Amino acid sequence: MERTLAIIKPDGVARGITGEVVKRLEGKDFRIVAMKMIHLSKKQAEGFYAVHQGKPFFESLTDFMSSGPAVVMVLEGEDIIARYRQLMGATNYKEAAEGTIRKDFATDIEKNVVHGSDAPETAAFEMAYFFNHLEIVS
Ligand code: GDP
Questions:
Q1: Is 118 in the pocket of ligand 1 (CB under 6 A)?
Q2: Per-residue confidence (pLDDT) for residue 17, from 0 to 100
Q3: CB atoms < 10 A from the CB of 84, how many?
Q4: CATH of the domain at 17
């Protein structure tokens, strides 16, 4: 069993596709074991995306991620990190495979609807960024 952090980014929440994303998760056997809505401050967005500090899109990305409410979730299942990244699709929606969330809903390389951790170490950091262990059901 593996866990990963998933986010429905502010563009997804603002466009009213939270339900659609959750439906795809539940329909494909991604167990949601924690879920809440948050509105990140600029500082909190910078902390979350600290690995991207110094990149040309860092300012814009952290402005976007703090621009409105987002839904954060912990997903659990076998090989969940890779399986969820497959369901999300490539960062650039133009390169995303058919049937992925980003292919179907993203409008921009930055406003790409969803986030998912890319490795066990980042998943551990990202889950702890938003949830304490009492907030994750087992
Ligand atoms: P992810 O793991 O697929 O989300 O991609 P990355 O970790 O590489 O990037 C994190 C987030 O930064 C992406 O999901 C996008 O929202 C944003 N991003 C990545 N590359 C670019 C870029 O070239 N330009 C802009 N504006 N945003 C980007």
A1: yes
A2: 98
A3: 25
A4: 3.30.70.141
Per residue, what are the HEC states of the chain?
CEEEEEEECHHHHHCCCHHHHHHHHHHCCCEEEEEEEECCCHHHHHHHCHHHCCCCCHHHHHHHHCCCCEEEEEEEECCHHHHHHHHHCCCCHHHCCCCCHHHHHCCCCCCCCEEECCCHHHHHHHHHHHCCHHHCCC
Which structural domain range is residue 123 located in? Answer: 2-135
Q: How many Cβ atoms from other residues are within 10 Å of residue 65's Cβ?
A: 23
- Which residue's CA lies nearest to atom 18 of ligand 1? 110
2-21 pLDDT, tens per residue? 999 999 999 999 999 999 99
The whole-model pTM stands at: 0.97
Residue type, 30: F
Rounded to the nearest angstrom, the distance between the alpha carbon of 134 and the centre of ligand 1 is 30
* Total domains present in the chain: 1
